[in-house]
Amino acid sequence: MQESKQAKEIILTKNPPNYSLTGECKITLANGKKRRLDKIKVGDMVLGVDKETNKVVPCKVIKSDTLEDIKTYGSFNKYTFSDGQFIKIVADHKFYNTDKKVFEFINSCNTRDRFLKEDGSIVKLIEKKFYNRCVHHFEIDTTLHNYFANGFLVGTNDVNNFDFNKIDYKA
Asked: Signal peptide position in this chain (predicted)?
């Protein structure tokens, strides 16, 4: 006989933290495969950039709220880029802005700002759109404080800036 899993409580978030992405966002694993953010857990290995070696390397997830109660917020922003890729964000999140060579909250960025992808390509932000719709949101952190979400290099609160021109993309 199988044990029944306890249902997670759904919590409506009044003030979501920065660094919250929607659950369908795809995180790049250390083996190059993609996994939904809402399936990532502490101990998983994902890809990130080591600023000391300038290499894309595996790093461990050290924080994940995907096993906690489900957090729901009443709105999100959808950002669309020149390669057709998009990402949905609750509150805000740091992305690597190649024009400024810093991790910057995307809400403060302008259309035409350029962002780094995991293959080394650079794409422009072409549209920001607000949706007044409920969405589940999640947050993770890694040993390098950065990782790839929907192919974009994103950072957490403790991320350090580096020069993207020096990155070796052969993980």
From this structure: none
